[in-house]
Design a protein that fits this description.
Elements (H helix, E strand, L loop, with lengths): L1 E2 L6 E11 L6 E10 L3 H13 L6 E6 L4 E7 L4 E6 L4 E3 L8 H15 L2 H5 L7 E4 L3 E6 L7 E6 H4 L25 E10 L3 H10 L6 E4 L8 H9 L3 E4 L12 H19 L15 H7 L3 E2 L3 E2 L2 H4 L2 H11 L5 E5 L3 H16 L2 E4 L1 H7 L9 E2 L4
Parallel strand pairs: 11-12, 11-16, 11-17, 12-13, 14-18, 15-16
Antiparallel strand pairs: 1-2, 2-3, 4-5, 5-6, 6-7, 8-9, 9-10
Helix pairs in contact: 5-6, 5-11, 7-8, 10-11
Length: 381
């Protein structure tokens, strides 16, 4: 089959390859298609890639830039590309088709941060990236030292000022962004006793990693930390009620229980225009009598970090990691620098383990559950 969509013609040929599996000792074989070029540099690149990666299948793209240069992209699990000047018969670097390479990299980083945590993007080895050039986009394939592979579809509209070849444009495009996955392991982070100045640090850590959390506020602290309250709300964090005076609700009369909750709800709404979503009773103290009075879902926890007791980032981090399971709710407090430090470490380690970190509200939605007023939740599965 002669492909005529490029000035550099090639054939599609069948390849028979086999790979021995070490564990079972079985030999797997597969016939697949590869592009064949008369140009030795390109054909050697393709054959070497297939052999070195023991390919049993192959996805590939051949894109002619109409300027005497072609990009060949191969993928059977470990992506790789070559830019080839077929007029002068030589391999080129990817940088040779980019007029303003530093700006291209900066734009790539910005786009990747829409989809991946900032710490993952900052760990990427851009010097060894592979690029799949297509009609109206370039798909970048990247790897990082600590957090594994990443990929991103960079629309030509985003990089048209940086590239050194004629590009096609599709104006009806949307950049890739992070999306929660209902099939992934999910854990909810919660922080009690704020607002506080440490909320600003926590919001930065959570937002930059596409994570979220529920912050249970004490009513009598709200007026003292307006910047933290505004930042939590504007960043989309879930805000819950942690009573007005941090009193044990089970020790109060029905009238006082209602007052502790209503006063906090009303103050928060007057300051932000938003409603609190759920209640975390002080000290986790709740009984049937109190549950009837609150009129909100009651969120407890099943991972208690004891961060208020230890004030030790290592212990808080260890408590999270040894108990982390899908659907769990983690209790922390936003009053301590050590909790911020433990959160930073836990976000990265949970990410490596395949978890996504969410608010209680998001956890319930992902699990297809509706949190009901007066009901108590220690986890959501």
């Amino acid at each position: 089959i002669v492909k005529a969509d490029t000035s550099l013609k090639y054939k599609e040929v069948e390849v028979f390859n086999e790979k021995r599996e070490d564990q079972k000792g079985e030999t797997l074989s597969k016939t697949f298609i590869k592009p064949y070029f008369k140009e030795k540099i390109l054909d050697d690149f393709i054959d070497s890639y297939i052999e070195n990666n023991s390919c049993l299948d192959l996805e590939y793209t051949v894109y002619d830039m109409k300027n005497g240069k072609v990009n060949v992209f191969l993928d059977c699990g470990s992506p790789k590309n070559i830019v080839y000047d077929y007029k002068n018969k030589k391999e080129l670097s990817f940088e040779s088709i980019v007029k303003r390479y530093p700006e291209f990299l900066e734009k790539s980083r910005d786009l990747l941060k829409l989809k991946y945590p900032t710490f993952h993007v900052e760990d990427i080895d851009f010097d060894n990236a592979s690029y799949d050039i297509r009609e109206s986009e370039i798909v970048g394939h990247y790897d990082s030292k600590e957090f594994g592979p990443a990929n991103y579809k960079i629309n030509n509209n985003e990089i048209k000022d940086f590239m050194d070849y004629d590009m096609n444009y599709d104006d009806a495009y949307e950049n890739e962004t992070f999306k929660l996955d209902p099939n992934k392991q999910t854990i909810a982070f919660t922080y009690d006793d704020g607002p506080s100045t440490y909320d600003l640090n926590l919001v930065e850590l959570l937002s930059s990693s596409h994570s979220s959390a529920t912050f249970f506020m004490v009513g009598n602290r709200i007026a003292n930390f307006p910047t933290a309250v505004e930042k939590l709300v504007s960043s989309g964090m879930e805000i819950g009620n942690h009573t007005y005076d941090h009193k044990s609700l089970t020790s109060l009369s029905n009238t006082k229980v209602t007052e502790e909750i209503a006063k906090t709800n009303e103050l928060f709404e007057s300051k932000t225009g938003k409603k609190m979503t759920s209640l975390r009773p002080s000290y986790g103290a709740v009984n049937k009598r109190v549950a009837v009075q609150v009129g909100m879902p009651i969120v407890l926890w099943n991972i208690d970090t004891l961060d208020w007791k230890w004030r030790n980032a290592d212990k808080v981090f260890d408590e999270i990691m040894k108990n982390a399971k899908d659907g769990e709710i983690v209790l922390m407090h936003s009053l301590y620098k050590t909790t911020v430090e433990a959160t930073d470490r836990a976000i990265k380690e949970l990410y490596k383990r395949g978890f996504q970190i969410v608010s209680v509200e998001q956890l319930a939605k992902l699990k297809g559950k509706t949190l009901l007023p007066g009901n108590t939740y220690l986890s959501i599965k």
